């Protein structure tokens, strides 16, 4: 006879049936432990190393239901096969609802032992499936935690690397004059817009989406500090709702805001003139957000953006990546530029 693979605790107050069950299950390869009452069965369970319990319904003292309830309340209970009389199907259903893995109706002869064996096999298989599923979920959770930690580290390093690039551009800008310096300053602002996203990501619990209000607030503050002066003060006002965007969309929106705000600060107001630029990001129907940047300048004579053309090309490219189009609304009292963006 092969070595028993599983240990079965059979709880029944009928001494003769206990012995018959032991002999029958041992022939089938189980290691069988007997208990004459619910109390004795619970004491044996405290010792551990029981794979499955077969529990009779009618017992003096602690009955089957009470024992089942106590077993199910254990920290890591084994599956329970509830054993009932031939006319107690109602009791069996109640036992299943109370936490039993299966039930077996007592019959005369070998059929009962066959049914009990089948129920034990199925309960053990189900328990193993649950165990494997729980293990897989735990491994998946651990993997996700490792990946999130890795993504945080990647975003931290990307932000540091981009900060180094920004510093190099700033150093280069200080070494040149005129249009070259202005172009390098614009490049530095574009880099800073992307850096802000990665700063948010490595400080966030969710590395897949960016909270746009938290992202845009320091971005517009930095633009205000950079583009404003005591001679030509610029005030940038942010009105952003609680909107979250995927990382790639957040970067594109940041670049667009940088270009539109920079363009408005440069061209909407004359040197020596105060000026305000308003940035809004709000939900706009199911699955869309609306981004707008507006000023109170004299408007656009040609209906498009001013400047060297690089900023306009960047805005168009970012709008294309966002699956949106740029709409210019110009009047003598100002310019409003808007995009309606589908959120992925």
What does this structure look like?
With 344 residues, the protein is an alpha/beta fold. Among the domains are: 100 residues, 3-Layer(aba) Sandwich (Rossmann fold); 136 residues, Histidine kinase-like ATPase, C-terminal domain (Heat Shock Protein 90), CATH 3.30.565. A five-stranded parallel β-sheet has the order 2-1-3-4-5, with helices on both faces. The mean pLDDT is 88.
Which key features would you list for this structure?
344 residues, alpha/beta, Rossmann fold, Heat Shock Protein 90, five-stranded parallel sheet, 9 helices, 20% strand
SSE topology:
Elements (H helix, E strand, L loop, with lengths): L6 E5 L3 H13 L3 E5 L2 H9 L5 E5 L7 H9 L7 E5 L4 H10 L3 E4 L4 H65 L3 H25 L6 E3 H16 L6 E7 L3 E3 H21 L7 E9 L4 E8 L14 H12 L5 E5 L2 E9 L2
Parallel strand pairs: 1-2, 1-3, 3-4, 4-5, 7-9
Antiparallel strand pairs: 6-8, 9-10, 10-12, 11-12
Helix pairs in contact: 2-3, 5-6, 6-7, 6-8, 7-8, 8-9
What is this entry, summarized?
By secondary structure, the chain is of the alpha/beta class. 52% of the residues lie in helices and 20% in strands.
Number of H- or I-type helical stretches = 9
Largest sheet: 5 strands, parallel
Shape type: rod-shaped
What is the H/E string?
Answer: EHEHEHEHEHHEHEEHEEHEE
Distance between the termini: 62 Å
The percent range for helix content is 40-55%
How many DSSP E strands?
Answer: 12
Which structural class best describes the helix and strand composition? Answer: alpha/beta
The CATH level-2 architecture of the domain at 209-344 is identified as: 2-Layer Sandwich
């Amino acid at each position: 006879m092969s070595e028993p693979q599983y240990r079965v605790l059979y709880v029944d107050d009928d001494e003769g049936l206990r012995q018959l069950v032991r002999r029958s299950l041992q022939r089938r390869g189980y290691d069988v432990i007997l208990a004459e009452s619910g109390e004795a069965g619970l004491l044996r369970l405290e010792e551990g190393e029981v794979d499955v319990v077969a529990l009779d319904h009618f017992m003096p003292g602690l009955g089957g239901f009470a024992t089942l309830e106590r077993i199910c309340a254990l920290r890591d209970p084994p599956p329970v096969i509830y054993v009932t009389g031939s006319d107690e199907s109602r009791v069996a259903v109640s036992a299943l609802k109370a936490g039993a893995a299966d039930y077996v109706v007592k019959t005369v002869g070998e059929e009962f032992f066959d049914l009990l064996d089948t129920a034990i096999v199925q309960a053990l298989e189900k328990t193993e499936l649950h165990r494997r599923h729980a293990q897989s979920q735990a491994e998946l959770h651990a993997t996700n935690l490792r990946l999130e930690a890795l993504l945080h580290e990647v975003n931290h390093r990307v932000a540091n690397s981009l900060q180094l690039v920004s510093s190099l551009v700033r150093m280069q800008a200080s070494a040149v004059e005129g249009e070259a310096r202005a172009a390098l300053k614009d490049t530095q602002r574009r880099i800073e817009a992307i850096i802000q996203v990665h700063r948010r990501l490595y400080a966030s619990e969710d590395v897949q989406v960016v909270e746009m209000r938290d992202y845009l607030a320091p971005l517009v503050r930095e633009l205000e500090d950079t583009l404003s002066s005591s001679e030509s003060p610029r005030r940038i006002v942010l009105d952003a709702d609680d909107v979250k965007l995927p990382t790639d969309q957040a970067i594109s929106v940041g670049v667009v805001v940088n270009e539109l705000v920079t363009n408005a600060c440069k061209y909407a107001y004359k040197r020596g003139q105060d000026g305000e630029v308003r940035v809004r990001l709000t939900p706009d129907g199911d699955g869309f957000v609306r981004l707008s940047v507006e000023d109170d300048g004299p408007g656009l004579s040609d209906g498009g953006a001013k400047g060297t053309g690089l900023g306009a090309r960047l805005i168009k490219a970012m709008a294309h990546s966002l699956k949106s189009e740029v709409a210019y609304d110009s009047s003598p009292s100002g310019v409003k530029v808007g995009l309606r963006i589908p959120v992925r």
